[in-house]
Write a structure and sequence with these properties.
The chain is α+β, with helices and mostly antiparallel strands. It folds into 2 domains: 2-78, no CATH class; 99-314, Endonuclease/exonuclease/phosphatase (Deoxyribonuclease I, Chain A). It has 8 helices and 12 strands. It has a 6-stranded mixed β-sheet with strand order 3-4-2-1-12-11, with no helix packed on it.
Amino acid sequence: MRRIVLIVCLLAAIALLLAHFLSGRSALGDIIDELWPVYMAIAAGLVFLCLFFNAPRRIGWQGTAASLLTASLLIYETEFWELGPLHMEMTAAAPNGDTLSVATFNVWASNQDLNATTTFILEHQFDLVSAQEVGLNSGELPDRLRAEYPHQFTCGRGVYIFSRRSFLDTGCPDTPQGLSRRMPVAWADIEWNDGEVIRFVAVHLARPMEMDWRRPQIERLADFLAANSDRTMILAGDFNAGHAGRSMEGLEAQLALMRRADDRHPTWPSNRFGGVPLLALDQLWLSEDLMMLYSHRGPDLGSDHRPVIGEVAKRHWPGNAEEVQ
């Protein structure tokens, strides 16, 4: 019986590894590829079984070696060590420049503590907030914030921009032809640095299991960025892609005009599976002329996501820019 358990676990681990390498070619592969904690759990479980069941005696040294090699590959492919600070070329912030405090928060349509969500936003007085899944239990949020955030804009699909600064312009990227759902993206221009304009873009991409929606959304977002490549921009939202995996690699390739700058804080799940966030789905992206002074993750606020907060400044480009890590 123990031999059968070891063999079944080894075959399951190999199947998961194959699904990982085939991700990007199938929706199932993309979904599995996001779940790096599952890789760690299966790899650790396989190693434990090998030791506990005395694998060399049960399945031989060849089977034991195959099990340990499979477990090592699974752990390596999680890239969990990539979580944490993003190392990128940085320069000093522009002297005397304005800064913007920004936040992105999937407030969840089934929000279980809207009072905590509202209080958190009001107490921090962010300049700009990208909120997703505003509706149902969280549907009162726009009205609750209106006094402090009188400038609000949405293109539907529960994606909102809340701002304490007045809008110069707002808009909604065109929905790709043949896509019945409206693009889950909204943008607003505000003034900063005594006359400069920055475009704040709120985003909520479809999940990997909805690739028929997700692919055209990403393609249209990439087209929108290319058409506005001369603008200073911030992307903020729920991108439904973690820190590693083919989905994230593909997203970074298609949104190459922007740089992810949120330090990959795990934000989901916030109130399920023990309440320990594992996947860094909520993100802040900056155009090349901006820099993140700091970013951090907010607390549990009744949503299944946690907010990500950042302070953004204009980059200063001295002649002898140094790399700061």
